[in-house]
Design a protein that fits this description.
The complex is a heterodimer of chains A (about 240) and B (about 500). By secondary structure, chain A is of the alpha/beta class. Chain A is built from ten helices and ten strands. In chain A, the strands form two sheets. Chain A has a six-stranded mixed sheet with strand order 6-7-8-3-9-10, sandwiched between helices. The chains are: A alpha/beta (about 240), B mainly alpha (about 500).
Chain lengths: ~240, ~500
């Protein structure tokens, strides 16, 4: 049984048909990436999975359990945690408080303390700034905080929305290294990216989204070599 | 770095307290130097030896207030139509004592704040506050200041502001009809403990019923609106705040028909078909319309008389309620629910993704806010012993919102301070200012103008209390421009 499965998802913004039948699967322990141009529906897909947008058709299943009709806070409780696009950290809360909010639905104090240690070892920078307000962090640190906050929810599936957005190339590399490290700890990841080269570099499999539809799919290595992907998304030849 | 003699906060404090001293005089100097001393003490950085740095500013600010008071007592008090200054308050000893007291408070507060032991810091400051709060009404009575009524009403409004702070400050929802819950609280006690229905349910029970009724209406109003996004809540609450007093005004002649027969009467156009259930012979009078309900029952406590004109029992009762509320709300703010409120205010989408149930959490804030307003309304109704629809107009919603914004949204200390400043200015200072201005007019311009009409015109032009709303407007605009986070920003706002 796949970890996360989307079947023929249709979603709308008002009358705009944003997702026109998206189907994708993520196996346990995988990094799956969703690439595509601006407005292709990548963020919409993530928000639909999270329950922030209610699909008009199709189904979303987490290890066979139906999530489609659940509100966002219930989806989170079932183990889907997101580092949202544009980071959306809580700017006037300290780093510590931001991380605590990530574990809002959990009651296992020991587990929370353990996860806090874990994200601090992954992001030592955050440990240094634990009392600082989220809004005063640099862009890269805010991105780390958003990812760390999602980790604090002890996710079964981690949704990452454009973690490289607006970051310097060096920082992008270190963020992607971290994503890979998270995955090696056994976390299933759905990674939405515009930086297709980097995303396909660490993902196992990928989906190419175009105007609300899946255009291509397959192993990341195969997609990297695909003529169309290279032309459109990797800016080659 | 060269140290400035006085910081900006101290200068503003001296100007404000100096102004109050200018228009009040008499014994008020004692209270003003204590307030100013506390401000100076809080303003000094809390580090070892801070008390030494508080001596000079403490002395200067106390001296400024004393000098202004001397000016009032000697010059302004001599103008026509001024309030009586007790002779005992104008002795040199009082001035010298005030000077010492102000400095001592400044030094004491600074020393307590910088004490190495956190328990000394905490309990020392709380103890000092308690001593001042307990001493105030007795001193006020002795000094014939006539401030007690204004202070009690200010505390009732501060209680409301605390409640609105949960809604607007913590959860970030704009409630423009907050007065509705105040009115519901007031009318609850008016109906349950007054001659209106000949009910005498105890005050101690009724305030809880009033709070529960307000919370219930908060739920009924909030449940359909809160799930909507954007500014719908502001608009709906604005309407609710208008509707509630109108409903109370119109519930004075009610006739209830059995609904099915009433429908039949309407359909067939034959009014005689409607079966009357209640109010048939004489329409029911539930709220007494525009005349309002009066008198309303007072709290009953063995050995204590809660009557009009005896302020001390009322003062301590509302002080206790306020203290309990502050304790309760500060615990609430640190609870799971409180953190969820702040997260929602910061970023709704992110909060939702963290597993926070937006509707339930916001609704809880809305209900709790309504509850405090209902509580305050019941107390207010009993205190003034009278409720009428006119006592609950839109301006109250605006004033309470002003208090929250002036003090600092989300900050308990700030909101209390904002509530006090606005209500004391409203009920006390504007009147005093008017008396002083009137005296100045009499003594100066009127000497040259014999025309009575012209004198009346000038007197009404300088009638300070009619500029109340203008003053609030100026305060709001100034705060937005120069200090949008409020006088005492909440800890989540600081350093941002």
């Amino acid at each position: 049984m796949p970890m996360l499965e989307l079947q023929d998802i249709h979603a709308y913004y008002g009358n705009i048909h944003a997702l026109k039948g998206i189907s994708l699967t993520i196996e346990k322990g995988e990094i799956v990436t969703l690439i595509g141009a601006n407005g292709a529906g990548k963020t919409t897909t993530l928000r639909t999975i999270q329950g922030l947008i209610r699909p008009r058709g199709g189904s979303i299943k987490l290890e066979g359990e139906e999530l489609t009709k659940l509100p966002a806070h219930e989806v989170n409780r079932r183990g889907i945690c997101q580092s949202p696009e544009g980071r959306l950290i809580f700017p006037r809360m300290s780093v510590q408080e931001n991380l605590e909010m990530g574990a809002f639905t959990r009651t296992d104090k020991d587990g929370i303390a353990r996860d806090l240690e874990r994200v601090f070892s992954l992001f030592p920078r955050l440990k240094e700034r634990v009392r600082q307000k989220g809004g005063t962090l640099s862009g890269g640190e805010q991105q780390m905080l958003a990812m760390a906050r999602a980790m604090m929810g002890s996710p079964r599936v981690l949704l990452l929305d454009e973690p490289s957005m607006g970051l310097a190339p060096l920082l992008v590399e270190s963020i992607f290294d971290t994503i890979q490290a998270l995955n090696q700890q056994g976390i299933t990841i759905l990674l939405v990216e515009q930086n297709a080269r980097m995303a396909l570099g660490i993902a196992h499999r990928g989906y190419v989204l175009q105007t609300g539809e899946i255009r291509l799919q397959g192993d990341a290595a195969k997609l990297r070599d695909d003529e169309e992907v290279r032309k459109t998304y990797l800016g080659e030849g | 770095m060269k140290q400035k003699l006085l910081t900006n906060a101290e200068i503003i404090g001296i100007l404000l307290m100096g102004f109050v001293a200018l228009i009040t005089g008499g014994w008020s100097v004692v209270i003003l130097v204590v307030l100013l001393g506390a401000l100076v003490g809080v303003n000094v950085p809390a580090q070892p030896g801070a008390w030494r740095r508080a001596v000079l500013p403490g002395l200067i600010s106390a001296l400024a207030v004393v000098l202004v008071t001397v000016f009032h007592n000697t010059v302004i008090a001599g103008l026509p139509k001024q309030e009586h200054i007790p002779p005992a308050s104008t002795s040199f000893l009082v001035y010298l004592g005030s000077l010492g007291l102000g400095t001592a408070v400044a030094v004491g507060v600074a020393a307590l704040r910088s004490a190495p032991d956190p328990r000394v810091r905490r309990f020392g400051l709380l103890g000092l506050l308690l001593v001042c709060a307990v001493a105030f009404p007795f001193f006020e009575q002795y000094a014939q200041l006539f401030w007690a009524n204004a202070i009690i009403v200010a505390m009732i409004f501060a209680l409301q502001a605390l409640g609105l702070n949960i809604v607007a400050g913590y959860a970030g929802m704009l409630d423009l009809g907050y007065v509705a819950f105040f009115a519901i609280g007031g009318y609850t006690i008016a109906m349950l403990n007054s001659p209106q229905f000949n009910l005498q349910i105890s005050f101690w029970l009724v305030i809880w019923i009033a709070a529960a009724a307000a919370a219930l209406f908060g739920l009924l109003l909030g449940a359909p609106v809160i799930p909507l996004r954007g500014d719908y809540l502001a608009i709906v609450t604005l309407g609710f705040g208008e509707i509630v007093p109108i409903v109370f005004r119109n519930l004075n002649a009610v006739k209830i028909a059995e609904p099915l027969s009433e429908l039949a009467a309407l359909v067939f156009g034959r009014p005689e078909l409607a079966l009357c259930l209640a109010g048939c012979v004489e329409p029911l009078n539930i709220t007494n319309g525009t005349d309002g309900i009066n008198p309303i029952g007072r709290p009953v406590l063995p050995g204590v008389a809660f009557v009009t004109g005896q302020y001390i029992p009322w003062y301590f009762l509302i002080l206790t309620l306020l203290a309990v509320s502050v304790f309760f709300i500060s615990r609430l703010r640190r609870s799971r629910m409180g953190r969820a409120w702040v997260a929602i205010r910061e970023d709704e989408l992110a909060a939702n993704s963290m597993g926070i149930d937006l509707v339930r959490t916001k609704l809880a804030a809305f209900m709790l806010g309504a509850m405090f307003s209902g509580f305050a309304g019941a107390f207010y109704g009993s205190y003034v012993s009278f409720v009428s629809p006119d006592a609950f107009d839109f301006s109250i919603s605006v004033i309470v919102l002003c208090m929250v914004i002036l003090g600092g949204t989300g900050s308990i200390v700030g909101v209390l301070l904002g509530g006090f400043i606005i209500k004391v200015a409203d009920l006390l200072l504007l009147d005093k200012l008017q008396v002083v201005l009137g005296g100045v007019l009499q003594a100066t311009i009127f000497q040259g103008i014999q025309n009575q009409g012209m004198q009346n015109f000038l007197e009404s032009l300088f009638n300070a209390s009619q500029y109340k709303l203008l003053l609030f407007g100026i305060i709001l605009v100034t705060m937005m421009q120069f200090r949008p986070q409020g006088l005492v920003p909440s800890t989540t706002e600081r350093g941002h």
